[in-house]
Amino acid sequence: MSVSIKSAREIELMREAGRILAITHEELRKALRPGMSTKDVDRLGEEIIRSYGCIPSFKNYNGYPASICVSVNDEVVHGIPDKKHIIKEGDIVSLDAGVIYKGYHSDAARTHGIGEISPEAKKLIEVTKQSFFEGIKYAKVGNHLNDISAAIQKYAESFGYGVVRDLVGHGIGEHLHEDPEVPNFAQRRKGIKLQAGMTLAIEPMINSGGYDVAWLDDDWTVVTDDGSLSAHYENTVLITEDGPEILSMLDTDKQE
Fold it and tell me: Which domain holds residue 238?
């Protein structure tokens, strides 16, 4: 396994990719409402990304037909936008998107509640987001990759949630998916030792029920096996000597 260490120039390009992706997510959050189709969300997301002179990372990636993965309720990830799939009050919607800026990728996901959602759905979204922040407390030089993974799992499972095993995070840079894989659950091995200049897409995928998932016939959409709700939260993270830097988040959203 070769994990790339990014140069100062590469980091600047990835910062800009992340900034544009964060803006895209914020604009999509503002636009989401009952009555939109998931295709409407995809169309708007692609327009925003291209308006900044960027390319959507996901469009035609391994044949994926859209720019934004739109996954609703029990859909975990990779939901394919469809003009017939109408978003309703009470739904939870996970948006996963990527941006290519001057050859470098950023990748991030958010889960949003549409209108009034159930207390259970609200809690799942909050815990999934917080599990990311629990994980990156360990995203420090000299720690091991498994320190991040174990912290995410421990936090999410403390609420009785299922941590998806069949999908993991990843390194990112000139390619959307690079080494290393970044699981959201503890491994038997410590994994690589973290070094300054590594860039990782850390992305807890958390189910309100069990962790088992299934693939629909479209070969893309992943759903919870038991029909429970699922939430997804992801950012592109740079390892620095001073701790983790979240590249795909606006300053107003950053937590201490």
Answer: 8-248
Evaluate whether residue 98 is within a structural domain: yes
CATH number at residue 171: 3.90.230.10
Nearest to 107 by CA among 165, 173, 59: 173
Summarised one tens digit per residue, pLDDT across range 146-195 is: 999 999 999 999 999 999 999 999 999 999 999 999 999 999 999 899 99
pLDDT in tens, 224-255: 999 999 999 999 999 999 999 999 998 766 65
* 64, part of any domain: yes
Residue 3 placed within a domain: no
Q: Is the pTM of this model over 0.85?
A: yes
Count structural domains, the chain: 1
